[in-house]
Each structure stands twice: as structure tokens, then as C-alpha cells.
Amino acid sequence: MPSGFNPNLHSARKAARPSHRLFLFLDSRHHPVRCLAERVYKEQSLETAERQGKDRRPESKREFLTLDEVRKLEDTPYIQENIRRAFLFTCYCGLRVGDVTDLCWSDISVNGGQHFVSVVMQKNSKPISLPLPAKALSWLPERGEPEASVFSLPSHTVLNKHLRKWAELAGLDRHLHFHLSRHTYGTMLITAGVDLYTASKMMGHADVRPTQGYAKIVDRKKKRPFH
Length: 227
Description:
There is one protein chain. The protein has 227 residues and is mainly alpha-helical. Helix content is 41%, strand content 7%. The protein contains 9 helices and 3 strands; from the N terminus they run H-H-H-H-E-E-E-H-H-H-H-H. The protein has helices at residues 31-43, 67-74, 81-91, 97-101, 134-137, 156-169, 178-191, 196-203, 209-223, and strands spanning 108-111, 114-120, 127-131. Strands 1-2-3 form a 3-stranded antiparallel β-sheet. A hairpin with a 6-residue loop joins strand 2 (114-120) and strand 3. The radius of gyration is 20 Å and the shape is globular.
């Protein structure tokens, strides 16, 4: 038998595909969210770039805050008001910590009466423009010069220390970090009935696959028995 190249040593990696589609229907009670979602759906097309989820956490480890926990934080003042405002802002818009740290007032604009935040995401260098709901706007400080930092946040190490102290003051036994606020936003979108396609754009995902993790989390919540 002649020696030759073994093709099994160089088999192509097969991309995982969703086993089914998840259809979500909007509730009229969430009409403001639906309006924002429709705007994103019309103004941004879904890109077909290959997802690079190397650092994506397993779905079982994807934690988020409940609405009650978010309200406790809203009701708890903290000495570092800029950190408190930045965290709650991201709970309602989903920006990553690097993007909110670099956020300048020139990145926030108004078009047709709707406020938008436009950034080049640090994670993948992709530009994104997202509508800001009223709850996110309510946590912005007084507007400054165009190139001034919106929140003037400290280093990540100092930031996490303050978040831990703030959580203790609020009576939360939770490890607060900015990815937790981003996951909170993702679950809020799906809970409000925003479809996966649009939610993926509002989260800045390349496609719907990482967004499906939030849908599974919400689905598990619905299946939990009432006590």
C-alpha cells in the first residue's frame, strides 16, 4: 500500500448550527422597546462574518441581574456617582466596559428626536450605532464638551473594588462587573419580546448565535416552578 497523505489529519472544522429557530412575539405593553428594535432592524443589516466567540462564557455561567436587583442599585446612592451612573447606563444599553470607558459626548447624538450612541467596539473594531432608551438617558450625567469623557471611569481594578462596595451597600450578594450589566441588558431585550435578529444587532453581535444564549436563559426562567 503506497504511503500518502492522510486527509483525516487535516479535516475541516464544522461550524455548529442552531438546531431550531426561536420565534418570539412582541407584547403591546413593550411598544417603546419594539419601536427601538424596529429602527435597528431597518437601519442595520445582518453581517455574515464568522463568529469568533473564543472568550464567550458558557451559557450556564452567563449571569444577569433581575429587575428587582437593578432597582435596588438604582435606589442605593454611592460616593462614586460616575461609576453608579455608568453601570446603570450599561444595564439599559449593553455597552462593554471598554466602550463605555472611552465614551465621549460626541459619541451621543440626536436624529429625528431619537438619541443614539455610536462607537467603534474595542472587541472587534466594528462601528455600531444604537438607539438609547429613556432609561439609559436618565443615567447620563450633565452633558460636557464634545471630546470630554462621559463617565471618567478609573482603571478596571479600582472600578471592580467600588462595584463590590456598592453591591454590599445595596444588600446584594453579587459580584458586580460590567459584563453582568451587559448580560442584564441582553435578557431584558429577550424578555421584552425583541426577536433574536434585532436583539443581536442591539447587542453588537456578528450573528444570532451568541444572542441565542439569552433566549435560552429566559426560556429556563419561564420553566422554573413557582413556589
